[in-house]
Amino acid sequence: MAASSVPWRRRELAWALYDVANSAYATTVMVAFFPVFLKQYWAADIPVTDSTFWLGITNSAAALVALVLSPVLGSLADAGGWKKPLLALFALLGVAMAAALFQVGPGNYPLALVCYGLGMVAFYLGLVFYDALLPSVTEPARLERVSALGYGLGYLGGGVLFAINLAMTLQPAWFGLPDAATAVRWSFLTVAGWWLLFAQPLLWWVPEPPTRRAAGLAAVAAGVRQLRATVLDLRRLKVVMLFLGAYWLYIDAVDTVAQMAVDYALSLGFGAAGLMTALLITQLVGVPATLLYGRLGERFGARPAILAGLAVYGMLVVWGTQMTRPYEFYGIAVGVGLVQGGVQALSRALYARIIPRDKAGEFFGFMNLLSKFAAVLGPALVGLVSRATGAPRLSMLALLILFGAGAALLYRVDVREGERRAAELQG
Q: Which stretches are transmembrane (predicted)?
């Protein structure tokens, strides 16, 4: 069956399954095993503050590369009809880098960081084209629900594979493996296969959105012209600019919590096994919570639901700076699971409502640019403050400023006005 003839609901599900594909990398590699394995296997011979520093720098460098490339590649994707080919390209790069981590030997933390960083670049840039496909796979009335479906399935899929990977590391003999270190290395290989497998439905069943296609150098020239035109459009879309400013601030804090939580807790002396359990709790709680968030967004609007989630995040950050017992980390994991997917899903849906659909690739490129510009600062700030003061708790308090300022700007976003202006600029 041709992609263009696939029914709407099947397109929605096929699109959402890509969240299952790449969430395995985000959960098993980025959030869970890589920070622990870096400290205990690849960088075991250097101080923990130095490994925290290099992890933060690598996170920031990957975000910087994505920052530079996102709007340019987004404009080329719109002009040439290349959203799916570019998504496939970066998915394959991510798969290759996850598999490459399997081969990195003990003590070789520079090579491990390079593979990890390139995998993050692939993860980030793939999201530009994945998000840009959202307006074309569903009807406007279902944007919140379908966006939440993606994140909800991502939590489910990432959680299932993470549970298997966690069992592999806790009981390697069950899987015919000699030790936990070998199990972690094999976990990276399973992530590569998982990403490749669950990317297939989108590539087969989601059509490339209609566009005025150009080929070869003509597409590059058209992309550059469109990039210039979109910059001018942004100056007229004040609601979009206001939302992007808010998103830039609060998503920095959200991403920093996700990227640095395990490293932060390890620095406070929490055990690795307990932290992995907490991450699994976050995944399991996130599945129903994110789907519920999608319904709440449909009923009450995305903006109020996001603001509520940011308030919860602020309370969790304060709690995190005071925690001393393992059960507290589990409580924070539950709290993050309740709001993280919802905030991300409804932010994507709200943005899709207030931008011109025929320029979704480029506009989502700008959204990705701002989020990665923020991510350049967030993880680096946590790493630098931790190294300079020797007190990781202090670095987390800076996130309250980002959450508060982002919420204040988001409160001023007029969604209806944004939808009206986007319709006027539709090509």
A: 12-33, 53-74, 86-105, 111-134, 146-166, 186-206, 234-251, 271-293, 305-323, 329-351, 363-382, 394-411
Contact 317, 400 (CB under 8 A): yes
Contact status, residue 43 vs residue 161, Cβ threshold 8 Å = no
Neighbour count for residue 187 (Cβ, 10 Å): 25
- Residue of 413, 391, 156 lying closest to 264 (CA atoms): 391
What is the residue range of 225's domain?
Answer: 3-205+213-424
Q: Taking Cα atoms as reference points, which of 407, 90, 32, 61 lies closest to residue 243?
A: 407
How do residues 132-182 score in pLDDT, each as one tens digit? 888 888 888 888 889 889 988 998 888 899 889 989 998 999 999 999 999
**Residue 241 near residue 234, CB atoms below 8 Å:** yes
Q: How many CA atoms lie within 13 A of 84 on its CB side?
A: 19
In this prediction, residue 182 carries a pLDDT of: 93
DSSP summary character for residue 81: T
Task: At 253, list the tokens.
Answer: 């804090």
Q: What's the structural domain count of the chain?
A: 1
CATH of the domain at 189: 1.20.1250.20
